[in-house]
Amino acid sequence: MKITVDQDKCCGAGTCVLLAPDVFDQREEDGIVLLLQESPGQDSHDIVREAADVCPGAAITVSE
Length: 64
Ligand code: SF4
Known about the structure:
Blueprint: E1 2-5, H1 15-19, E2 24-26, E3 33-35, H2 45-54, E4 60-63
Antiparallel strand pairs: 1-4, 2-3
The structure holds iron/sulfur cluster (SF4).
């Protein structure tokens, strides 16, 4: 799995961080998403897909 984030689309809602805090973080200044792991382990895949699905800005892209 490879994850990319588009910080221009992120509205800082933080849902991804709540779901997968090992993979996503937010910038302190403005809450914009930071990617901690581009290729997380298998045990994170389902929750990362869910984070991408529910992201209100469609800022998270997942490829296999
Ligand atoms: S869920 Fe989407 S909009 Fe919200 S912080 Fe994460 S990437 Fe940004």
